[in-house]
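Backbone shape codes
____________________
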Amino acid sequence: MKTSQDPVRDYLSAVEREASALPADRRQELLADLAEHIEVTRAERPGAVIGEILAELGDPRTIAATALAESGTGPAASPAGGGSGAPARRGKVHPLVPVLLLALAQPVGMVFPDEGGSLIGGLVRITGAVLLCTSVHWTARRKIIGVLLAVVLPGVAMGVWNLSDGAPEGSGPALLANLAASALMAGTAVWLWRVRRA
């Protein structure tokens, strides 16, 4: 049995096969977009295994079903093609929304410290986490890492800080703690933006 030596070519061929119902120009645009995404990801992460990059893109059947549903040229829920029968899932919220909510949650809380800023910042953080978790723009693993770094870790640290009797007196240490939490959330937001799916 003959096997191919180029997994990218095999992957793109599988997408092309699955998306054969698309108009030729739209199908070629889809393949060009995928090939460009693969090349950019390989350039950004030179040590990454190509199989991991392709797995992050998703199953060729799912990509084709999404493209068909978006173009309106194929049935969105046709089980005849071997699909699950479920409509292709599309992101309804722009990926920038959860990223900005997570990045700005801590500064919002710091701006209004006496007017319930902690509550407002917490609500902004929770909203960002929910939108992140329900988004199609990140893999499950990246969603978990994002929630842990931008929500759980800062929340636990601030809770321990506020509840401990050993917290240093004065506004200086509290300001440093808030700035550190802000930096962690902003760094996580930047990372999430860089690793999002196209």
Q: What stands out?
A: The chain has eight helices and no strands. The radius of gyration is 22 Å.
